[in-house]
Amino acid sequence: MSTNPTRVFIARLLGLDVFDPLGDRLGRLRDAVALERGRKPPQVVGIVVEVPGKKRVFVPMTRITSIDAGQIICTGLVNLRRFEQRGAEILMVAEMFDRRVTLADGSGDATIEDIAMEKSRNGDWFVSQLFVRRGYSSSPLRSLRRNETLIVDWNDVQQGEPDEPQAATAFVASHEDLKPADFADALHDMSDKRRIEIATELQDKRLADVLQELPDDDQVQILSALEIERAADVLEEMDPDDAADLLAELPEEQKEELLQRMDPEEANDVRRLMEYEEDTAGSIMTPVPVILPPEATVAEALAHVRREELTPALASAIFVCRPPLETPTGRYLGVVHIQQLLRFPPPEALGNIVDTDLEPVSDQADVSEVARMLATYNLNALGVVNEDDRLVGAVTVDDVLDHLLPDDWRAQEDADPVIRKAGPHG
C-alpha cells in the first residue's frame, strides 16, 4: 500500500522506479531539483528522472502523487524534453551532497551526506534537515569524534560555497565507477560553471575518455577552460581521431598552440588526420591499430589485443604488414581476425593464417563506401591504405557510426518533446 510521508530523505529515493498512474514505468529517480532562496531553506520543485536512452527529464513535485520505499508515482503530463538546469536551480545530489557546512553551535565543520525534504501544509516541499558527518570540533569544551554523524535543521548550519574544490573532488571520487559515457551525460546536464569545476578535477586519462563522449560545444568549453599545458596533455590521452575532431572546432591560433605543446609523435598523428578531406576514410580512421609483422606468432598477437586501452572494435583485427610497423607501414599483407587467433596454436605465424582476400579501403574513399564494406563483410574494423598500398590506419564500426549520426545526436532526441499520456487527474 502506498504512503505519502511528509518528510523524506533524498538518498533513500535515489534509483527508485518512477511510474505513471497507469502503471507504466517512466524511469528511475537520479536527483532532485531545488531553488535557492538566500537564507531561507531551498524549495524542492521537482525530481530528475532517467528515462530509457539515458536521457534525464524533469518531473515537477506537483505531479508526484505517491512516494514509498519501493516506487514513486506521478500523474498528469510529463514533458520528455531533456532536463536543463536554469537560474537559481540546484541539483541536490550533484551539488549539495558533499558540501561542507559550519555548525551554528560552534562545534566545527561537517559534510552533507543526505538531505531531508518536507511537505508544508500548502503542498510545497522544502529542505528541512541535513544528515551530516562531522569533520572536527573547534570547541575545547567538547570532546567530539571525527566521523560522528547527526541530523541538524537547515537553519542550524552556515552554508559553505557550493563550488568549493572539495565538493568537486568528492563528486569525482563518488562517481569513479561510472562509464565515461554515463559520466559525460551527468556533466552535460550540469550548469556551465559546475561542468568545468568537475571536469578539471578529473585525471587526464579519465577526462580524455569523458570528453570523447560529450557534444562538440561541451568539449570546446572544457578544453578552453584548462591551462594550455594541461589541455595538451589531455589531447595526447584522447584517440587521435577524436583529438583531431576537437581541434578542428578551435580557432586556428589556439589549435596550433596546442599542437606545438603536444608530444611530437602524438601531434604528428593528429596532423595527418587533419589533412584529409571531410567524409573520407582517412578523416575518421584510427592511425594506431594493432599492426604486426608476418613472423609474429598467434601468442604474440593475443598478447597485443589484450591491452586494456584497445576498444573491442580495434582488438578484433590484427593488421599484418612489412616493416616499418608504424603508420604509414611497409607493404600491407592482410588481416587476421581474433576468431582466427583462437583457432590456431600459439606458435603459428600470422603470415600462415593471414586473410589476403579482404581488400583494404583507400584513405580517400567516401565514408559511405566504408560503411557498405563493414556491413557487407560483417566487420568491426577495416584497414585503410594510401596510394602506395601502405597501411595508414583502420576504420572501426564506431568511427563510422559517430560520423554518420548527426553532429548533435546526443541532444537531438530533445528537439521534439514527447508528452506522456495523461493520467486520470491530468
SSE blueprint:
Elements: E1 7-9, E2 17-19, E3 25-37, E4 40-51, E5 55-60, E6 64-67, E7 71-74, E8 89-91, H1 92-96, E9 100-103, E10 109-119, E11 125-136, E12 149-153, E13 157-159, H2 165-174, H3 180-188, H4 192-201, H5 204-211, H6 216-225, H7 228-237, H8 240-248, H9 252-261, H10 264-274, H11 281-284, E14 291-292, H12 298-305, E15 317-321, E16 332-337, H13 338-343, E17 361-362, H14 367-376, E18 381-385, E19 391-396, H15 397-404, H16 409-412
Parallel strand pairs: 2-7, 14-15, 17-18
Antiparallel strand pairs: 1-10, 2-3, 3-4, 3-8, 4-5, 4-11, 6-7, 9-10, 9-13, 10-11, 11-12, 15-16, 18-19
The tally of helices reads 16
CATH superfamily of the largest domain: CBS-domain
**What profile does the largest beta sheet have?**
13 strands, mixed
Please report the distance between the alpha carbons of the first and last residues. 22 Å
Shape: elongated
Known CATH architecture of the largest domain? Roll
* Rg computed from alpha carbons, rounded to a whole number of angstroms: 27 Å
CATH-defined fold name of the largest domain: CBS-domain
Estimate the strand proportion: 25-35%
Helix content: 25-40%
| CATH class category label of the largest domain | Alpha Beta
What is the count of distinct domains? Answer: 4
Q: Class by helix and strand content?
A: alpha+beta
How much is the average pLDDT?
86
Overall strand count: 19
Low-confidence stretches: 137-144, 162-166, 413-426
